[in-house]
Design a protein that fits this description.
By secondary structure, the protein is mostly helical. The chain is about 60% helix and about 0% strand. Keywords: ANK repeat, Repeat.
C-alpha cells in the first residue's frame, strides 16, 4: 500500500500520530494530490500532522499571522477551536510564528476568545503561557471570559488568569512609576495616586 493511501486513511481515522509521521515521508506531489494543507489538517482535528506539514514546508521562515479563511482566522484560531489541540501542540504552533493576540476580521476574536468559547482550557493555558492577553476585548467589547455561553470551566479558569494578569500588570506599572512618584510628591499625594 502506498504512503499516500496510508496518509489518507490516517486522516480519515483521525490518527494524528501516524498522519504526522507520514507528512514527513510523502513526496510533495503526493501531498498536493490529496488536497490537504495545514488548515485542513487542523480543521480535521490533526494538530500534530498540521505542525509537521508547516515545519516541512515553511521551515525556518515561520508561519506568521496569515488569515487562512474568509473570517480572517489564523491557523491558531482554527487550532483553538479543535478539541484535539493539546497544550503542547498549541505551544508548537506559537513557536512557528503564530501570534497569540491576533484578532480575526469577522468579530475581532483572538485565539483565546475562540478557545474559551470551545471550552478548550488546555489551549487557553498554552496561550497564556505564550503571552496572550486575557483582558483583550473583541469587537463586541468582551474579554474571553465575559463572552456569553462559554462553559463554566472556562469562566473559572479565565477569572483567575485575568485577576493574575491585572495584578502583575499593576505591579509592573507601580515598579516603573512608583519610585519616581515617591521622589517628586509628598507622601499623602503618592498615597492618593496609588489608591
Amino acid at each position: 500500500m502506498s504512503s499516500a493511501v496510508d496518509f489518507k486513511n490516517a486522516v480519515e481515522n483521525k490518527d494524528d500520530v501516524s498522519a504526522s509521521e507520514l507528512v514527513k515521508k510523502l513526496q510533495t506531489s503526493e501531498l498536493s494530490s490529496l488536497g490537504l494543507d495545514a488548515k485542513t489538517l487542523l480543521t480535521n482535528g490533526l494538530p500534530l500532522a498540521a505542525i509537521s506539514y508547516l515545519e516541512r514546508f515553511l521551515g525556518e521562515k515561520g508561519v506568521g499571522d496569515v488569515a487562512v479563511d474568509s473570517d480572517g482566522n489564523t491557523l491558531l484560531h482554527i487550532a483553538a477551536a479543535s478539541p484535539a489541540t493539546t497544550y503542547d501542540a498549541c505551544k508548537k504552533l506559537f513557536a512557528l510564528g503564530l501570534g497569540v493576540n491576533t484578532a480575526n476580521k469577522s468579530n475581532a476574536d483572538t485565539p483565546m476568545h475562540v478557545a474559551a468559547k470551545c471550552g478548550n482550557i488546555e489551549v487557553c493555558k498554552a496561550l497564556v503561557d505564550c503571552g496572550a492577553d486575557p483582558t483583550k476585548r473583541n469587537g463586541k467589547n468582551r474579554t474571553p471570559r465575559s463572552q456569553p455561553k462559554i462553559p463554566e470551566s472556562s469562566k473559572d479558569y479565565l477569572l483567575d488568569v485575568e485577576e493574575n494578569y491585572k495584578k502583575t500588570r499593576e505591579e509592573k506599572k507601580m515598579g516603573m512609576f512608583g519610585a519616581k512618584l515617591q521622589e517628586t510628591q509628598t507622601e499623602s499625594a503618592f498615597g492618593l495616586r496609588v489608591v
